[in-house]
Amino acid sequence: MEAKTKNTYEQINKYDLSAEQVADILQLFAIINHTKQINLKHFDKTVFAYYNIPDLTEVANKYHTEKWDYIRGVDRELLTLTLWKQH
């Protein structure tokens, strides 16, 4: 939202994020929350409220083995981040 006058607002366009940008944000989210796992089924997608993003499942598949291990089950889409394996 962008203020036009004291009492009126205009909806601004959402910015587009690439799959790589979304992957980086997911990694930062894990670091900030001191976790190595993110369950995409229960992930708070409001993190991306101001952006148009690619489908999270597609991002998860694209970076499987490069940035994380992706496990998909009945009630879970689990990312286990591998950035800690670099040491």
Strand order of the largest sheet: 4-7-6
Overall spatial form: elongated
Strand content: 15-25%
Number of domains: 1
Order of helices and strands: EEEHEEHEE
The biggest sheet amounts to: 3 strands, antiparallel
Structural class: alpha+beta
End-to-end distance, in Å?
43 Å
**What share of the residues lie within helices?**
10-25%
Count all strands and give the number: 7
Mean pLDDT figure: 89
Low-confidence stretches: none
So how many helices?
A: 2
* Whole-angstrom Rg: 16 Å
Short structural summary:
The protein has two helices and seven strands, in the order βββαββαββ. The protein has 87 residues and is of the alpha+beta class. The strands form three sheets. The chain has a three-stranded antiparallel sheet with strand order 4-7-6, covered by helices on one side. The protein has a two-stranded antiparallel ribbon with strand order 1-2.
